[in-house]
Amino acid sequence: MKRTLIKTIALSSLLTCSAVALADQSDYKLMVIETATAPQPVEQSFNNCALNVKSKNYAQAETICTKAIALLKQSEGPKMKLRELTSFALSNRGVSRMMAKNDTAGLSDLYEAAQMADSAMVSHNLTRAKEYLSL
C-alpha cells in the first residue's frame, strides 16, 4: 500500500513537470524535470544524471541515468508520458556516453531514444552525435 502510494505521488509529480534543455543549439541538450514539489527518486536520478554530465562526471552520470531508466520502467502511469521521459533519460545517458568517448553505446542510446518518442531535443542530440562521428 505504502509503495503504491509513493509511486502514485511520484507519478503525479511527473505528470505536472516538464523537461527542459540545458544547452545552446550547437551543443548537446540535456533534459531535466522541473517540479514544484519535493523531488521523488525518479526526478532526483533524472536530474542528477544531467547535472553530472554538465559537471563532466560521465561515469557517474551513466550510472545515475541507468538508474533513472530502471525507475521509469517500474513506474505506473500514462504510457505516453513514461515513454517520453524514458526517451529523455536515454538521450541524457547517450550524451554522457558520447562525452566519455563510448561512441557505440552513446549512439545506441540516442537511436533508441529517438525511436521511443518524437522529440526535437532528442533528434537534435542524435543529429549532433552523427555529425561528430561523421555518419
UniProtKB/TrEMBL annotation:
Keyword flag Signal: yes
Source organism, top-level taxon:
Bacteria
- Alphabetic keyword roster: Signal
Question: Does Signal show up as a keyword for this record?
Answer: yes
- Residues annotated as signal peptide: 1-23
What's this protein's name? Orphan protein
Task: Name the source organism.
Answer: Pseudoalteromonas rhizosphaerae
